[in-house]
Write a structure and sequence with these properties.
By secondary structure, the protein is α+β, with helices and mostly antiparallel strands. Helices cover 33% and strands 30% of the residues. It is elongated. About 7% of the residues have low confidence.
Length: 135
Amino acid sequence: MLKKLLWSFFIFIVLVMGTVWYKTSSYMFPWRVSDFIKHTLSWGGLADLPENIKDFNIEMYGGGFNRTYDMEFTSTETNLKNWISNSKRLKDNNPISITEFISEYEISPGEENAAGGWVQINWQTYKVKVHILWS
């Protein structure tokens, strides 16, 4: 009886810890990546990703009470200009110049009750960084 109880407790702990790790880890299961991209774009009021992007990466942090998505990709100047003009929250947004080549668009508040975030574009390397927070 004690052995069954200990095994049950062990399984319970493993399941709880797995759930906590899953919700707070930046690791993404491959089948969830498309959901995370969808959330990042919709919460930021951003258009679909440009075609032929390179160096794509997305990470999620948080759990049931808050979520943060950090997404990066590289594209071409033409694709990025089209992406900006097709993005609800970027097209009429005046960016702040971080450096000579880096522009940052503030998104505050975000869409769908998201807190907001920012989009940084390096116009020398055409690298985009998106940071969106929901809480």
